[in-house]
């Protein structure tokens, strides 16, 4: 399994945690911690999966998702949305914009692994 | 010797002088200058019309015939004026507050505006006053005759009646001229009052002059005169007790009831406080008028030939002694007494006749009522003028019929007892709310009837109107109706008898019928207004001047007609009066027009009441109020309810809108806040959960990694704690629950503590300067919390190569200013407004703050009475903390 | 005396009320005083006063009453008893 995941998240501790979990599972993990050029990072890294935080400095995760879905190459790219707000409205919005999966922080590590693997398998 | 020609010449000069005085006073009053017209002295002097020719000539005759009895006529009124606090004050107050025009008006108004009562009082007053007017004409005629007798150069004056006629005509002319000069809002007759006051001085001066001449010129001084008195036929006290009592009471009543006294005392009263002067000055005036009566009578009886009319001693004594100048003065005194009485009495009577008899008849014959009556004024004027002429003619005819035969005193007393019949209705009306119209009517009818039967008709003498048989045996032989012995009780003095029975039956009827019948609502209202007049009219009120009234009228009209219409109407009215602008004089015409216009909007009664309220001060009559209540009460209530409701609705709607906006705002804020809280809490928890799971599930981790991950968990847990602390802190501050612990602290101490708390050893270099020695009276913990926040912010966010924070303190304009400026890039202008909001974190989050720090600082500074602001224009981020110096003192 | 300013309002209004009582009592007192002549002996009777004495009594009492009325009128505070100025009656339409 030599899949690449791009983690777009701004909290360094969370980046470290998710990276550790995924790498132990055999993923190659790339990180990006800035909203402004996140779309560009996706285009250059061409990951198999994107884990996208909603609250990013410079640009909202929703805007990034919208751009990803609008672009042809990334329209089908599996995107796991993470949010610390966890309100219903956020979930609806994410689904509407075409998020493949939505997870509220905090999550269990097992949950995270399962979701990621599901998304890549399907 | 005195010459009749000289007498006539001097009289004409005197009359011309009186005309000039009256004219001047009218002019001065019109120009608003005559403040001297309104002096209490003039008021007191005008009251002296109580002293008529009856006093001037008759008192001496009275004394010559009956000794000291004449004093009762002056003692009674003196006591009434001394007791002004009881009745006179109340009458004046009622007269002013109710716009009373005469005694008939007072009684009629009090008993529910009864037309019948007004007519009855007027008729009785005319009947009672006519003989009195005749008496004045007679006195002048007699005086002229006495002069002509003494004037040997003249042929004897043939026709005395022509003298009386000429006098009557002259008086009618004067009275019409000055008594009905205008019918403007002001019912007062300044000219007449002034002329009367002048005449009062003349008559007092004349009588005292004759008295002084008699006592010192003839009698040889006070002592000698007193001896002479005691030696005369009048030498001992000889007044019958019943007459002494009855006449004092009668004259006291007359002062209150005589139409002419009511005219000068109430209607012409300029200011109520004039009464307090009159209360002592009027008794003194009467005393002075009475003082020399007995000496003159005694000396006259001594010196004058038997059979000489003692009524004319005042005139004939100086004539007989060859003092023609003094006689002339005496004549003028008598002339003054007679004319002033006739003038005022005919004004008073004409007002009554016009208002209570002529006008009601005229109005009832007008189809349109008062609505079409632009010419009511002229009708009123005409009817008053005719009434004056009529009253004087009546007096003249009475004089012709009675033939001047009766003694002056007798006529005067009959007249007094006639008007005294008003007393029960008057006093009952102003002191007893229970008195009602039926009682007053019955009392007046019975009292008037008894007076007519027992006093007035017999006064013509037996056989003139009542036959001698009737006098002796009663009408048709009914013995108990004998005029001098009602109910068979004979042996009383005829006058005392008549006064006693008429007033007793009058009062009994008033009280009895008032007790057993019910008043109309109008009577009850009026009764309350009259009896409790001092409760309603206390204190100063009213309108300062004409223009002020116009302005008030305009304000009112704008409310009712609309601003544009009202302004246009006022402008046209002002233009018609030749004035510029929007404020016409509040003339009768203008008020009438305004009232008509207003009536179209609010109804006639309301318009009348409104205008009355503005132009007349408190003088809205109860009738007006009743009409207003009847006409508009329901409409008003309805519309005011509607208005109140719609206002209430609008208010509620506004409140709801505001509340809604606030709620929406709060909801948005709450959502944002909750979502912020959620984010701030979940973010550290995510790390904690993830790493704790890793540590639990992966036993193969090396120690370094383990330690690192545990460290992260610890760090994030601390972050969570900090966040919760901040949230609690902010909540307490925002709800103003914080309790400040104020103490005197040196600024340096606070800064030192803040620096120590932030672990100043870090990369950040601190530069401190300025007036740190200042002593503040503040909460040290809270202020240092602010400083800690600012310093740690600089530690976290200052992005300079070698970060540096400058803290400078100084005092400016009573404020303590502490600036915290670092050397970083600062905060972008569009973010500066946001930094003090909750969770507003600028830039990267690596510093781990929750974004509550500056929000907390702002709250703390507000609690401390100061402020914290972002200080733009520095090389880096700048914050300024400001505290008021009150409570902060410079160190010595 | 009208210008004096008492320390306590209560005291001054109390004084004014008593002065009002005095103003009301004065005519009663004067009436009794002036009715005394009614019970004098008269005419030729023994002890009937001479007219000169009667005059001195009556005129003396008269002046005394007037003086008392003067004093009361000066002491009574106008603001207590009547409206100040010519307000209510300045326009008297009818």
TrEMBL record, chain A:
SMART domains named in the record: REC
Gene3D superfamilies, sorted: 3.40.50.2300
Coiled coil ranges: none
Modified-residue entries (4-aspartylphosphate), positions: 53
Domain of life of the native organism: Bacteria
InterPro entries to which the protein is assigned, alphabetical: Bact_response_regulator, CheY-like_superfamily, Sig_transdc_resp-reg_receiver
GO MF annotation, one: DNA binding
Keywords in alphabetical order: DNA-binding, Phosphoprotein, Transcription, Transcription regulation, Two-component regulatory system
Pfam families, per the entry: Response_reg
Domain Response regulatory: from-to ranges: 4-120
Protein name as annotated: Response regulator
UniProtKB/TrEMBL annotation, chain B:
Transmembrane segments: 6-29, 41-64, 70-88, 116-135, 163-180, 192-218, 244-262, 282-306, 326-358, 379-399, 405-431, 438-461, 499-518
Catalysed reactions, as listed in the record: ATP + protein L-histidine = ADP + protein N-phospho-L-histidine
Source organism phylogeny: Bacteria, Pseudomonadati, Pseudomonadota, Alphaproteobacteria, Rhodobacterales
The name this protein goes by in its record: histidine kinase
Domain of life: Bacteria
GO MF term set: phosphorelay sensor kinase activity; transmembrane transporter activity
Location in or out of the cell: Membrane
Domain Histidine kinase: 676-887
InterPro entries xref list: HATPase_C_sf, HATPase_dom, His_kinase_dom, HisK_dim/P_dom, HisK_dim/P_sf, Na/Glc_symporter_sf, Na/solute_symporter, Sensor_HK_Regulatory
GO terms under cellular component: membrane
Entry keyword set: Kinase, Membrane, Phosphoprotein, Transferase, Transmembrane, Transmembrane helix, Two-component regulatory system
Membrane topology, as annotated: Multi-pass membrane protein
Family: Belongs to the sodium:solute symporter (SSF) (TC 2.A.21) family.
CDD domains: HATPase (cd00075), HisKA (cd00082), SLC5sbd (cd10322)
UniProtKB/TrEMBL annotation, chain C:
UniProt entry keywords in alphabetical sequence: Membrane, Transmembrane, Transmembrane helix
Domain of life: Bacteria
Chain ranges passing through the membrane: 21-40, 52-73
Protein name listed in UniProt: Uncharacterized protein
Species of the source: Primorskyibacter flagellatus
Lineage: Bacteria, Pseudomonadati, Pseudomonadota, Alphaproteobacteria, Rhodobacterales
